[in-house]
Design goal:
This protein has 13 helices and 23 strands. By secondary structure, it is an alpha+beta fold. Helix 2 crosses helix 9.
Length: 439
Amino acid sequence: MKKTKNDLMEKIVSLCKRKGFIFQSSEIYGGIASCYDYGPLGIELKKNIKEMWWKSMVQFRRDVEGLDAAILMAPQVWEASGHVEGFTDPLVDCKECKHRFRADQLEDVTKCPDCGGELTEERQFNLMFKTHMGPLEDQGSLVYMRPETAQGIYVNFLNVQKASRQKVPFGIAQIGKAFRNEITPGNFTFRTREFEQMEMQFFVKPGTDQEWFEFWKEERMKWYDFIGVTKEKLRFHEHGKDELAHYAKTAYDIEYEFPFGTMELEGIHNRTDFDLTRHKEFSGKDMSYFDDETRERYIPYIIETSAGVDRTLLTCLIDAYEEEQLEKDTRVVLHLSPKIAPIKAAVFPLVKRDGMPEMAQKIVEDIRPHYMAFYDQGGAVGRRYRRMDEVGTPYCITVDTQTLEDQTVTIRDRDSMKQDRISIDKIKEYLDERILFVG
């Protein structure tokens, strides 16, 4: 059965709740809008996506360093970045039904799209969450929940450069939470008020920025193929002059064909020297870099790659979901890449006797130091296969009568449903070849 755009999101949301990928936050109290909790399978999938990004950005490269900056920063950071003054969306309210809308997303800014009522005048709404630091809630204690992770990288540029002894060009990578008081969040986890970003800021000599921009544009597109996202559903979108952010010289989005439209998955921006120059002006600190080989001093340009963890996870779920019509039933399967699948292998005893459960549990314990594994002895083996297919487990291992005789098991592939017979002591090698060394 081919998945349709009309009902696919409903099926994804239902699957996430039933199988423990994603839950509505504070659900027992009626939930809180556009905030979500990641369950046992969701947190594994999220961890695996972040790990694949970190490996590609930091572990596999010599020219990128890692950072974990604080969520709370000096309020002057957000003044320098332009967020205090300009990080706004145009807001209108309906005078009748009281629903709230972004004015730039309406065809008619005078009439409510929900009830037809009259809309208020447009006003600017700052998207940053405010809080107070210390015992007094006054203007002097005002701080912001960071709306992006990039500024923590910029203010630490020289700290990281000097500590790591890196030379320009080099990058700083960070994964962390950010917060935006969105007027109209939606489409499940696509746009939320609390989210996690995977950002890398690459510092380059002015004049070489376009070359590095093209390099990172292609590298980031390759990464989605690396984690198994369908190539044909990805495309580049270049920002026109009317779309460019105030700091950007050039900007491209990597877009994905979601059920609710082709939308941004990741942004790649040439931010020029805007950010470091602004922080130099507002802090009074010299943010320039001295090249001891060419004896030049300059403020580097920055090539930014910015992806959302939550949005990437949603993309992987949507992209992997399939319903296959078999002779007697429909098989729901998540074709997640083995690299990011929450559970890498499930182990079943064929029956609950003759020492098979004990042997299957021993195999699970042998796998778990290396890969997330799951033990299941409930119901017919076919039903157990279906349960594992639905959560994207790539390999199912069955202990049967022959196992007791010759110490071999069957390993069934999720996508082809073919089975291999291998020795128990070769299981890890089998999984390594298909998880670590592919793609």
